């Protein structure tokens, strides 16, 4: 699932950037939805919100580190929600990494193509969106206590939150006439 989500995010980002670069020149804008959405090609040599412009090589190394960390974490992955989360993060990181490695002005110095603009928000791309959605999902999953291996924080007793617990409850319901209690219902 992680690979499928990452591949989908990466493909959507690459295809959208190819279309934008072929269709919009610097300075061209396309206003949609009454100006709520504007398509505008820009090149970003920095990180999100154009922070750290001129440090493209550093951000390339950081992105490579993120990709390696996600691939290493994937070895312990046993949770579908975390697979989606890490897939979004991986696909987004790879999308921007492809730009940093291969786009002008040169190898490992490339500027990321950004093209989506909302009112009062910096221009971004689909890779950035995947990273933000993956990050938000990671916060949500961590807040709920769900770990990458499918267990929950503080669940050491084998409670209802563990994988397979639903089957045990259904089995108990079948034996006791629907109460879920092995001793019967009161």
UniProtKB/TrEMBL annotation:
Q: Where is this region: Disordered?
A: 152-186
Mark the transmembrane ranges: 47-71, 83-102, 122-143
The protein's annotated pathway: Protein modification; lipoprotein biosynthesis (signal peptide cleavage)
Record EC number: 3.4.23.36
Q: Which InterPro entries match?
A: Peptidase_A8
Q: Which domain of life is it from?
A: Bacteria
Where is this protein found? Cell membrane
Keywords assigned by UniProt, alphabetized: Aspartyl protease, Cell membrane, Hydrolase, Membrane, Protease, Transmembrane, Transmembrane helix
Q: Which GO biological process entries does UniProt record here?
A: proteolysis
* Any GO CC annotation of this UniProt entry: plasma membrane
Report the GO molecular function annotations. aspartic-type endopeptidase activity
Q: Which residues are annotated as active site?
A: 114, 128
Reaction equations catalysed? Release of signal peptides from bacterial membrane prolipoproteins. Hydrolyzes -Xaa-Yaa-Zaa-|-(S,diacylglyceryl)Cys-, in which Xaa is hydrophobic (preferably Leu), and Yaa (Ala or Ser) and Zaa (Gly or Ala) have small, neutral side chains
Instruction: Give the way it sits in the membrane.
Output: Multi-pass membrane protein
Q: Which family does it belong to?
A: Belongs to the peptidase A8 family.
- NCBIfam families the UniProt entry points to: lspA
Question: What the protein does?
Answer: This protein specifically catalyzes the removal of signal peptides from prolipoproteins.
- What is the protein name for this chain? Lipoprotein signal peptidase
